[in-house]
Amino acid sequence: MLATDNKVAVILPTFAPQAVLWAPHFDFLNLAPGESRQRFYEYLYFTGIEPNKLGKELALPLSTFAAAAFGHERVIPDLTVQAKPVTSEEIALQVADYEAYYSSFTRDRAVQHILAYVIVPTAGGPDLSNLDRWYERDEGEQVGDYILYQVQLRR
């Protein structure tokens, strides 16, 4: 499941049996080495976050994306005794890494974590054009302030 609102992504596992593609705090889960970053990049790709926008997000104070990319202890200094702030060089390297991922996205990557549902806010939702390249969405069902789409991988 792809939940494009981080608040929904965090709480969804409490109420739904479907696995979430990515959510803040995935660093607390037992994932294979590199899997958290791969899921994070896939989330960014499917929600239309382009590399230049990621760079801007990573530079924001207390950024959820920066916490995912560099670790919460790097973004929230009170979580560690010896704070080590994120540098502009680290942000540039992260953006370059994501840019390589973004520009080389293939069907092989699209099928690594098959999606069945996508949840987006009714107001101000993300650009899902990258998702639509690989998945077909149904007409969607409004549930409160969100639209729930069933999706199928394109053939």
Secondary-structure blueprint of this entry?
Blueprint: E1 2-3, H1 6-15, H2 35-46, H3 51-58, H4 64-70, H5 72-75, H6 88-103, H7 107-110, E2 117-121, H8 129-134, E3 135-137, E4 141-143, E5 146-153
Describe what this molecule looks like in 3D.
This protein is α+β, with helices and mostly antiparallel strands. The protein is built from eight helices and five strands, in the order βαααααααβαβββ. Strands 1, 2, 3, 4 and 5 form a five-stranded mixed beta sheet that branches. A hairpin with a 2-residue loop joins strand 4 and strand 5. Helix 3 runs antiparallel to helix 6 (88-103). The longest helix is centred in the middle third of the chain and has 16 residues, at 88-103. The protein is globular, with a radius of gyration of 16 Å. The relative contact order is 0.16. The model has no long low-confidence stretch (mean pLDDT 91).
